[in-house]
UniProtKB/TrEMBL annotation:
InterPro entries: AB_hydrolase, AB_hydrolase_fold. This is Phospholipase/carboxylesterase/thioesterase domain-containing protein.
Length: 226
């Protein structure tokens, strides 16, 4: 179960007043949660009651596809076939770190109420800080964190993730956030953190999409099963 705060559990803190959802396919649901702070959109791949769940967040502008030409969709489809659920989080207020961390934590809370027990958080660019923040906020259920071309701002307390595994992936030709951002994160997160540099890759990591998918399709299930 996702941790409660003195004010309530993460989903309760959203102050939602309506929820709509449709089944896009048997293994994909589109969920819209209307709140006082904006619309939270979730694309939920896999079984609703899956015990292992991956939470994915976009960059400062939001978005649900992720980098590398739709990475998040492809991972969601692949993980669903392995019995791992994936929730792609469309933030209520993109680029507002505290609110976006709450969005990811609320998605974890929803999944926990349905049966989720072990979570990996994953985020691209600004979303890397969201994934780190959610991992810090939910220490008993988040078992691993992945960042893709992350910013370092918002990751200052990454030592609180230790000894959980962290995988930081960055392109060596990132034109927006230099690879040193991921190097700083890995140094803060301690000996269980790993840095993967993708050669010739810019901020969207498109030049190494196949390599990126292969690594994540190995790393995430292994961490969830550990």
């Amino acid at each position: 179960m996702a941790e409660a705060t003195p004010e309530g559990r993460p989903f309760d803190l959203l102050g939602s007043f309506a929820v709509q959802e449709v089944e896009v396919t048997p293994l994909l649901r589109h969920v819209e949660i209307y709140t006082r702070g904006g619309l939270l959109t979730l694309l939920w791949h896999g079984a609703q009651d899956a015990t292992s769940v991956v939470l994915m967040g976009g960059g400062a502008a939001g978005g649900l596809l992720g980098p590398a030409q739709g990475l998040y969709h492809d991972l969601g489809v692949a993980f669903a076939e392995q019995g791992i659920a994936t929730i792609r989080v469309g933030y209520r207020q993109p680029n507002e770190l505290g609110e976006c961390v709450l969005d990811m934590a609320a998605a974890a809370d929803l999944a926990a109420r349905a049966g989720g027990e072990r979570f990996v958080t994953l985020g691209h660019s600004f979303g890397g800080a969201v994934a780190v923040g959610a991992g810090i906020a939910l220490p008993s259920v988040v078992v691993g964190v992945v960042t893709l071309a992350t910013q370092s701002a918002g990751c200052e307390q990454a030592e609180l993730l230790s000894p959980r595994p962290v995988l930081a992936i960055h392109g060596d030709r990132d034109e927006i956030l230099p690879a040193i951002c991921s190097e700083i994160l890995v140094e803060l997160a301690g000996p269980t953190a790993e840095l993967m540099i993708l050669r010739g890759c810019g901020h969207l990591l498109s030049q190494a999409g196949d390599e990126l998918r292969e690594r994540l399709l190995q790393w995430v299930p292994a961490v969830l099963a550990a």
